[in-house]
Design a protein that fits this description.
- 34% of the residues lie in helices and 25% in strands.
- The chain is elongated.
- By secondary structure, it is α+β, with helices and mostly antiparallel strands.
- It has 13 helices and 20 strands.
């Protein structure tokens, strides 16, 4: 592994660890979980503005439930089974069948559709040990699952809205170049060919409506429907398949989802499954390698390191730290017994974007010296330092602003 491999970076930057007696399970450390939560909250705000209601569903459900959805027949060997006396249970590999249970509670009207649910779902899949790869492919992960219940006439516009949202997120994260593929019907599938013809056509039309020309991946669709697959490209030119959107007419029937149509009859909704990140851990790994371990200010686990030059400024250093924290800036004290130069090196090694250095003059004048990773510095009043860094802490703000 090289120095820019996320597996090395995770250890070096004290973000997470993996261990042999828990293969495919990630132990998130405080710094790593800070990045995790920032990225999760960033996408949560996007989904809320797009009209999605966040839900939370169980991780452990009866095997019989997964049998009705079809997942046990298709993925049973990759699901973790738990026996509870006479009741066979299994950990969920995905959240979408659980969202149907929420939809099914209460009588739904066509006037309510589309209904959009989103979940950062904790999932487990018994992946072969040889396929595990750092935090990019694990056995326990969190996925940004989302599900839209809609009518046929809504499908194309809903898929197009998702593509626009995905495009916005990828561009803001620094991935303007991505590819899209249409994964068509596999040999073993549910549903009749007429439904597959219609679904594949709708996905292709929605992609073209958004200015995309998908390549065709024959036979790579899910067992219940075709999907568009989005692969982003990092600064090294590598391609990573992350986002997906799928049209599904099978699960609503198998799990008996219905709504009251305009004529008073009961009708089946169609379902659109989608994810922008896929696994959050995988996205964090991609971002780390894309940025060479030096994340943008808004994503950095520690955004500013406060370093008093001597113990005499320790009290003022604590006030500076509190001012940053009160403004929502992730600040950490570098006030140990080492020399200032060694503390600057230590912060640099932890990829902290900015150091706030305070000495006798800064303490006397209520100021702070901001030092960037490239060595440039600016001596400013504390209030101005707070406002500058607060502006950079906004999601997807410029990586470095002029001092």
């Amino acid at each position: 592994m090289d120095d820019l491999d996320h597996r090395n970076l995770g250890v070096k930057l004290k973000l997470w660890h993996l261990q042999e007696d828990a293969p495919g399970m990630v132990f998130w450390h405080p710094r790593g979980y800070a990045v995790y939560r920032v990225l999760e909250d960033y996408l949560r705000r996007k989904m809320r503005r797009a009209g999605y209601a966040e839900v939370r569903t169980p991780q452990l459900l009866p095997k019989e439930f997964w049998g009705r959805s079809g997942h046990w027949d298709k993925f049973g060997e990759h699901m973790f089974r738990v026996d509870d006396g006479e009741l066979a249970m299994a950990l969920k590999p995905m959240s979408c069948p659980c969202h149907v249970q929420i939809f099914n509670k209460g009588l739904r009207s066509w006037r309510e559709l589309p209904i959009r649910f989103a979940e950062f779902g904790a999932c487990h899949r018994n992946e072969p040990s040889g396929s595990l790869h750092g935090i990019m492919r694990t056995r326990a992960f969190e996925q940004d699952d989302a599900l839209v219940f809609c009518r046929e006439q809504d499908v194309e516009s809903e898929v197009a809205c998702f593509i626009a949202l995905l495009d916005e997120v990828y561009r803001e994260l620094g991935f303007p170049d991505y590819e899209v593929a249409l994964a068509t019907r596999p040999a073993v599938r549910a549903g009749d060919d007429a439904v597959w013809d219609w679904s594949e056509a709708k996905l292709g039309d929605a992609a073209r409506q958004c200015g995309l020309v998908p390549q065709i991946n024959p036979g790579e669709g899910a067992f219940y429907g075709p999907k568009l697959e989005f692969a982003l490209r990092d600064r090294l030119g590598r391609s990573w398949q992350c986002g997906t959107v799928q049209v599904d007419g099978v699960l609503p029937q198998r799990l008996e989802a219905s709504y009251v149509a305009p004529d008073g009859s009961r009708a089946r909704p169609l379902m659109i499954h989608h994810a922008i990140f896929g696994s959050l851990g995988r996205m964090i790994a991609i971002l780390l390698e894309h940025h060479g371990g030096v994340l943008p200010f808004w994503l950095s686990p520690d955004q500013v390191a406060v370093a008093p030059i001597s113990k005499d400024q320790a009290g003022y250093g604590a006030d500076v730290l509190a001012a940053f924290e009160d403004a929502g800036i992730r600040a950490v004290a570098y006030d140990g017994a080492d020399t200032l130069s060694r503390r600057i090196v230590a912060a640099h090694e932890m990829a902290v974007p900015v150091m706030a250095i305070v000495g006798e003059r800064e303490m006397r004048d209520g100021r702070v010296s901001l030092r960037e990773r490239d060595g440039s510095q600016a001596d400013v009043p504390l209030a101005e330092a707070v406002s500058r860094l607060q502006a950079r802490a906004r999601p997807c703000a410029p990586v470095v602003e002029a001092l």
